[in-house]
Amino acid sequence: MTIEQWLEDARMDAFRRQLPDLATLLEGLAKSTAALRAAEWNDDASGRAPIDGDKESQ
Amino acid sequence: MSDVHPTIASIAPRVAKGEVRAETLAEEALARIAELQPKLNAFITVTADEALAAARQADKDIAGGRYLGPLHGIPISLKDLLDMRGVPTTAASRLRAEHVARRDAPVTARLRAAGAVLVGKTNLHEFAFGTTSEDSAWGPARHPMDPTRSPGGSSGGSAAGVRTGMSFASVGTDTGGSIRIPAAACGVVGLKPTWNEISADGVVPLSRQFDHVGPLARSVEDASAMFDIMRGTAVTALDASPLRGRRFGLLSGYFMDRLDEHVEAAVLMAVDQLRRAGAVVMEVTLPHAADIAAIYLHLVLADAAAYHAKTLEARPAAYTPNVRLRLEMGRHVLAEDYVRALNGRRVIAREVEHALEKADALLLPALSIPAPPLGQATMPVKGGQEPVRTAMLRCTQPFNVTSHPAISVPCGHTPQRLPVGLQIVGRLGQTSELLRIARSIEAALDAHA
Predict the structure, then answer these.
(1) Does the distance separating the beta carbons of B344 and A36 come in below 8 Å?
(2) At residue A55, does pLDDT exceed 60?
(3) Does residue B410 carry a pLDDT above 70?
(4) How high is the pLDDT of residue B98?
(5) Which residues numbered 310-329 in B keep a CB inside 8 Å of some CB on A?
(6) I need a labelling partner for B17 at 20 to 30 A (CA). Which of B31, B129, B154, B356 fits?
(7) pTM score, two decimals?
(8) So what's the ipTM on this one?
(9) Long-range contacts made by residues B260-265, C-beta under 8 angstroms, separation at least 24?
(10) How many Cβ pairs within 8 Å bridge chains A and B?
(11) Which residues of B touch A3 (CB under 8 A)?
């Protein structure tokens, strides 16, 4: 799921439950999730090795 | 308010000889609590009758030649996350106001077996889910030097109580910094041991993979005695090892880039004092330090949300509003991002291990800002303004992520006389060695105070 789709769904949930302040917090979480997903040590199924030195490039 | 209170190490020999009665210490602690509670709100439950009974028993036992050790007859408090038989464990939440613990947590039982006099349960940030101790169903805990400020959190009541003589030491918990942050804010010592070194059974969890139980005390020696008793080993004398020739890695980059200017000055002055004492201090970095906050956030949010899922649905209004919202946020963390965070955790742990290959310990600030005013959203740091929560977690949360032991030791003050803490990080499983190093650093800093 893309972050954009996730945030849209999460914000709808927050407004449906009448928690507008939660929607604001979720925007902050989205930024953090984007940073997490952009980290260079994430796995890549295309075969490019992550920076984890214990794994060998496939 | 007197700021001078004896350590356990200084008073215990006098208690052992009968020169000072445990009942007197308990009466003084309880009087102190009664005097300061309206201003600092450090306690949720005061167990006065039980404490006095335990103190009288301690005096009888000591007079009868049955001295149990340095904690015998000493007033100690517990963060209100730990079970104490027959007393509510509220977690500072209305959700648990009626809960009464049926048995002591193992840590509580060990303190009792060592003869400690338990004076009560301290105030905290609700369910330990915050760094300021201001979101509590019993009202905010307040800073001992400036009650308009936070004492830090989440073990804020514990730190305020130790600093002001309400107890000689306290037991706190630390999931992202909740022992070290209030210890630094209030000018006391706070130890987060290696993960799982002290039992967290009978302790309300926030994130079991990050939760640590540890002591807050007035000296490293006192923290060491508490640590030994809490983990169930005999109290061993803390021989300070010489600083000359010791090698320390000063964590720079991410850990020094966004500090309050006075915190930075105090920490660098402390590091300079260590160099003058003969220590070798070199700068080290963690290459992926900037990823730590996102790693921590995704794991702690999801862990906490899972624990609270049932009550978030059944009784959401029983939480304080800010804590409720953060828990609700946690229910939106996706499994794939949780797994990414777990992978990132291993990367950071390896980088800390690598930094410790050439150093006996790592050094960095414990808290990047001085104690913030209650209700403040941001604080000034080098480079601009930083959200309070981000600033308070920056230097401590990495070592919850990696499980390394870490201790905060007072190292100076800001011009407004707010305390600054130096954090020392040791090798995994070597908390006792960390305490020896911290003792030496404390002595070197005291010598220049």
Answers:
(1) yes
(2) no
(3) yes
(4) 86
(5) 321, 325-326, 328-329
(6) B31
(7) 0.97
(8) 0.91
(9) B260/B368, B260/B369, B260/B370, B260/B379, B260/B380, B260/B381, B260/B382, B260/B414, B261/B382, B262/B370, B262/B414, B262/B415, B262/B420, B263/B365, B263/B367, B263/B368, B263/B369, B263/B370, B263/B414, B263/B420, B264/B365, B264/B382
(10) 65
(11) none
